[in-house]
Amino acid sequence: MAKVVELLLTAEIFNRNPSLVEDDIPKEIRKVFYSNGSLTRPLVVKENMVKSYVSYDEKELRKLPFIDINNFNRQIKITSFELAVKWLAKNGVELIKKNPVLAYYYESYDSLDVSYVEAKRFSKPKHSDAEWLRNVIDELSKNEETAEMLSLVRITSPEEIEDSLSSVVLEDSQLMEIRKIEVAMEEREWLKEIGLKEVGKLLFVGPPGTGKTTTARALSKELSLPLLEVKLSMITSQFLGETSKNIEKVFEIAKRLNPCILFIDEFDYVAKTRTSDEHAAVKRAVNTLLKSIDEISLVEDGVLLIAATNHPSLLDSAVWRRFDKIIEFPEPSESVRRRIFEISLEKIPGNYSIDRLVEMTEGFTGAEVKLVVREAVLSALLNGKKELSMENLVRAVEEVRDRLNLKNSY
Ligand SMILES: Nc1ncnc2c1ncn2[C@@H]1O[C@H](COP(=O)(O)OP(=O)(O)OP(=O)(O)O)[C@@H](O)[C@H]1O
Ligand SMILES: [Mg+2]
Asked: Which domains, and CATH codes, for the chain?
């Protein structure tokens, strides 16, 4: 019953205090309101909404002297705010502690040791909710202009991302750069105050399969920021001026969805077309890209820009110097390959030597190391085995190496 009263009081206190914002409402309660439309004051609570939050016994609920259930529209209301407040103070302190809206109110309530700041720590910001994002996208889809912008990018909520920073193996130097971005994001307001705006534009450089995309996704999860992905080849058009317009739209949608990560993959694509064909439209596209990068900022707009490329040599210096950080994703060192093997083999029983595997896979990327494990598991399964032998793995290494040689011979 305490959770029902929590929900009702959260709505009531939120309605009464204009200084409270959506982010103050705990995620599980926000979700209830998003899935019933948007979250706008005054919040009205209906029976079905309470049921999607917690199951309860209606008879028991009716016994509470401060609850009214309307038999026609099934709206549930608090009839005496004071009584409800008193009741929850007695029956739901644990809930209050983790609910910023409630903690905000109860902070000044006698004899209860709760704090708004403490409660905030338990509560993730709204832009990390899949429901919130879906709602924003729905709204943007209603307008023709913004709907078109949406069609150019792939948007993922951090909640839907599985890769975490602990599942991608990075060198210490890479991790340190990523830590810097995390703190910059946390201290955005302060950076703005001191006028430090040139942060938050990263260029990931490295061969295919070295973890660039995975790291961008893991960052989205880690920072609880929606991820907007776009491949430059996908928005390049043969029609005059179209590519430039698309680039502008992509940056515009990122600003509308802020805070978010804008991940631009195949970043060299536009530059590549420039070398093959010195067409005016291509030049214009490159210029638009440069201008868009200049005009977007983590500190001002809340957009973290990450671009990735396999062909850094194709980027000219005008592009290069617009990024405040270049993070290299080289072919993995021995210790990185070892960690990837360890993580990938963690749940797989068998008798094998990781030391030997690391030695044998010099020059393999992270993706190829994972491929070795996958191949080995499949061939073991083919023989009816749910454990790996060294032979399975050695053969898989050879197969993957053959593939590499085949690729390189063309
Ligand atoms: N350092 C790493 N740690 C863990 N997994 C890795 C690492 N590098 C690559 N992988 C794995 O390899 C696969 C491919 O990685 P990813 O897509 O991130 O590569 P990429 O650098 O973006 O490649 P591309 O340039 O082709 O886009 C993923 O399954 C990823 O988990
Ligand atoms: Mg990639």
From this structure: 2-123 (no CATH), 128-328 (3.40.50.300), 334-408 (1.10.8.60)
